[in-house]
Specification:
242 residues; Arc Repressor Mutant, subunit A; 2 strands
Length: 242
């Protein structure tokens, strides 16, 4: 239930937006679920429909809700998470960016894997192993595994049981995406092996083993990116000489 707001015209849209967030949270509205209509929310908050429209625009800009014309207002797929929160799409040198993202992932993901090993449930672990097997299969068939790899890391973040970790997933996913782009789907056997080791460590609920496996996995990714950048520079030099 929404609460009536203080009658301050400048603050009303922001206050209304916070009340709508409260509604989403308290009613546990999931991605894709519809919010009450403008008229209903305006009545509950004792404000005009214009204030509700402004509040919804605020929430839309924060990627919490989306407006579907003629249908209403719905909770976003990943509420509050921006697709490119750090503006990485504007960085021109993708090779350098891929290496920098590897450094950030080396800070975050070994501890993420350790938390997952401590806290994951058996059903979640089976799902993680299933996704990892699908990645291997796609890789060996020479098909794109980007979607499944992102799914792997998203699930890993969720099973860490840390409320902040899933919010960092867009950064991790950008690193995964850039790795695949820079290396042209060249996932080496060694990185597949280390990904299996991560899953095995989580299955054994061994945080230290999971931490070490994730670190090894990321260092191999980093090495492969460096190799690819060097190969590309060498080819450019040879072409230039020719």
């Amino acid at each position: 239930m929404l609460e009536s707001l203080n009658n301050n015209k400048k603050l009303l849209p922001k206050q209304a937006a916070e009340q709508i967030i409260k509604l989403i949270r308290e009613n546990q509205l999931q991605a894709g679920e519809k919010l009450p209509n403008e008229f209903e929310m305006a009545g509950q908050l004792s404000v005009g429909r214009g204030t509700i429209r402004e509040a919804v625009k605020i929430l839309e800009s924060r990627n919490i809700v989306e407006i579907r014309r003629g249908r209403g207002t719905f909770v976003c797929e990943h509420p509050g998470q921006m697709e490119d929160p750090l503006g990485l799409a504007l960085v021109e040198d993708k090779g350098r960016l891929a290496l920098d993202l590897c450094e950030i992932r080396l800070i975050l993901e070994p501890e993420l894997a350790a938390l997952a090993a401590q806290r994951a449930g058996e059903k979640e672990i089976r799902k993680l192993a299933e996704i990892q097997e699908q990645i291997e299969k796609l890789c060996r068939q020479g098909e794109s595994y980007l979607k499944k790899d992102m799914e792997f890391h998203e699930l890993l973040a969720r099973i860490s049981r840390n409320a902040v970790m899933p919010r960092l997933v867009p950064i991790i996913q950008e690193g995964v995406s850039l790795f695949i782009e820079v290396t042209e789907l060249s996932l080496a056997e060694e990185t597949l092996r280390t990904q299996r080791k991560i899953v095995e460590a989580i299955q054994e609920h061994d945080p230290q083993k999971a931490r070490e496996a994730m670190k090894e996995h990321l260092l191999l990714n980093q090495e492969r990116i460096q190799e690819k950048i060097w190969e590309d520079k060498s080819e450019t030099f040879i072409d230039g000489k020719g």
